[in-house]
Amino acid sequence: MFVWIGFIAVVIVFLALDLGVFNKNDHVIKSKEAGIWTALWVTVALAFSGVIYWLFSEGLIENPTGITPNTAVLKYVTGYLIELSLSIDNVFVIAVIFSSFQIPPLYQHRVLFWGILGAIIFRGLMILFGVALINKFEWIIYVFGVFLLITAFRMLKSDDHESDPKNSWLFKQLKKIIPITTERHGHDFFIKRMGVIAATPLFVALIVIELTDVLFALDSIPAILAITADPFIVFSSNILAILGLRSMYFLISRMLQKFRYINYSLVVILAFVGLKMLFSHQIELPEWVSLTVIAVSLTAGIVSSMLISDKNDEEPTD
């Protein structure tokens, strides 16, 4: 219990420093700044693998399956890379949401900050619920496996990034609950006009991002649960990846067109994890196999995006 309290306390300190010190004043996040923060978050997350090793070697955390410290580290790193790779798809959607609701770059970090804070709470609940299901009902892992395969197939066949959030069912339902205005007032989420409190586009974007993240968690959490059902490894790897999502967004959102084939990498990863769940009781794959599949898939998607020219970008010839 003390380990959980300590980890959550550290996360809260990170968030407080983020908004209260380093980003106290609204400003546009440049690529250089985003790159530095992304590198910092990745370093912190990978360095935390040392903490995982220490916790399991010293027996400071519950270990019902009796995994070794080295195995725990491999499972943590694999889970972190899965969540980090699936977060790339989330970046595409966030960019569409900001564009649809015309959120200026000056205020995007503030929206993402509160979005990440809510995501931590919701994902924590979903992880505990998912781990409890797997521990109580072993057959639920097959349900998760099929779900991931269906998700991979839908991702392969559809293009969700082109949809307009303003036409979504979610936005229409939100308009029925609270008054919404198209007027912005700095970084405020609400404004009061003629005695009526209305939500600004910043708050609407926040809610849409928040609930969209819940939908993404339905994919990413079962994917990590395919690697391990240890709640602390699942939670810590997931949260540390989410903490770096904001800086990752500002780093790669300006290069989205260059990563047009990364979607296929995510399809491969989801399909692999889904199959691993379905055959988990028949085939036990070493952790390095999962790491290799994830690394190769992401590398192939990035390299293909950089080397293969887009026909739409080619100038027509007379």
TrEMBL record:
A single cellular component GO annotation: membrane
Positions in coiled-coil regions: none
Membrane association type: Multi-pass membrane protein
One matching Pfam family: TerC
Keywords annotated in UniProt: Membrane, Transmembrane, Transmembrane helix
Transmembrane segments: 6-22, 34-56, 76-99, 111-133, 139-156, 194-218, 224-249, 261-282, 288-308
Main location as per UniProt: membrane
Intracellular or extracellular location(s): Membrane
Domain of life: Bacteria
Family of this protein: Belongs to the TerC family.
Name used for this protein in its record: Tellurite resistance protein TerC
The organism of origin for this protein: Pricia antarctica
